[in-house]
Amino acid sequence: MRKNCKLFTGVYFMSQDLEDFKTVFLALIKTRGAGRKYLQRVLNNCIDSSDPAECAVKMAVSDLKVQSDLIARGQELKEHLKEKGVSLLLEHELPPRLRGTGWLFAQGRIELLQKPGYFFLGLVGSRNPQGDYQNLVRKTIKAFAEYTELVVVSGLARGIDMVAHSVALELGIPTVSVLGYGILHEYSTRKDYRKLRERIPASGGLVISAYKPRELPRRSNFLERNQLIVKLSDLVVPVQGKVPSGTYSTVTKAVKMGKPILCLRSDEVIEIINYLENIHYEHRYILNSEEFDEIAAGNILRSIREAKPTNLKFNFAKEAE
To answer: What is the 3-state secondary structure (H, E, C) of 257-268?
Structure first.
């Protein structure tokens, strides 16, 4: 076997071959006319070739009429990303649950995506939450952390998302933030956002983005971001949200993917609960907030791991007694 090589789609590549390809790929990201579909086509056409970097350069020169100095142009962006602690992960470097994403930019503890055994808890909700939502988020995270090696997933938006990340950091639980914009984009000047954005990778967490490094946020990006949250999560928890809303779009994506969904009854999430019950979604777990505790979380985990979807219309805690 060749030394210093990695296996992708059954083909062995020298590590340097892969790095050269990433350099060209980064250059294309900076090139006008190279949109996401084109970048995906380059990835699909070249990753299995004998010289993926040369293949990408030839495509760019032919299709986009660019100069062939892409290695030099891409190296500049690569060095800047390295300074920021950002890595480019291509499709074949992603875990199976994230396949089909194409590529990701990642800052922080990449092992969170690669190490088996983690349970990814996706917490989503309103940007303008009501009531005692902070304690509800804390209660949910602590309950599941009693029984599994937990990773909290959310989207770093104002409201429920930021609370989820903050509580995870407070409890010493790793957290993954999925952005709806470029990983180098300064999304907000708010002090609380900027501080949290810096703390996540610095504290053993991870920030990921499927967009060009400086891509601006768009509505469609956030909807796609929601899909990535669902793909990564083993259980999706809509803490608060109306119909329609971003939270609702996340729930509908979870339904399409057959992902388990947990709702703790409240007026702020009743419309989503009604949606799940009306479609008779079999992977739903619906409990009253006061009934949910560590025992209930443990039973939910057992049910998910045994791949036995259940319509929970009873109190898990009472069953355990």
So the answer is: HCCCEEEEECCC
Do 64 and 194 have their domain in common? no
Per-position pLDDT tens, the chain of length 321: 333 444 333 333 446 788 999 999 999 999 989 999 999 999 999 988 999 999 999 999 999 988 767 778 899 999 999 999 999 999 989 999 998 999 999 999 999 998 889 999 999 999 999 999 999 999 999 999 999 999 999 999 999 999 999 999 999 999 999 999 999 999 998 999 999 999 999 999 999 999 999 999 988 888 899 999 999 999 999 999 999 999 999 999 999 999 999 999 999 999 999 999 999 999 999 999 999 999 999 999 999 998 754 443 333 332 332
Indicate whether 98 belongs to any domain: no
Cα 301 to Cα 307: distance, rounded to the nearest angstrom: 10
Amino acid occupying residue 195? K
Encoded tokens for 16:
């340097």
Rounded Cα distance between 83 and 79, Å, is 6
Contact 49, 92 (CB under 8 A): no
116 and 262 together in one domain:
yes
Query: Nearest-CA neighbor of 199 among 229, 228, 226, 168?
Result: 168
Burial class (CB in 10 A: 0-12, 13-18, 19+), 49: middle
Say yes or no: 47 and 195 in one domain: no
Q: Is residue 200 part of a domain?
A: yes
Q: Is residue 247 part of a domain?
A: yes
Q: In whole angstroms, give the CA distance from residue 119 to residue 107.
A: 20
- Domain hosting 223: range is 111-320
* One domain for residues 152 and 62: no
Q: What is the CATH number of the domain that holds 156?
A: 3.40.50.450
Q: Which residues are CB-contacts of 61 (< 8 A; sequence separation ≥ 6)?
A: 67, 68
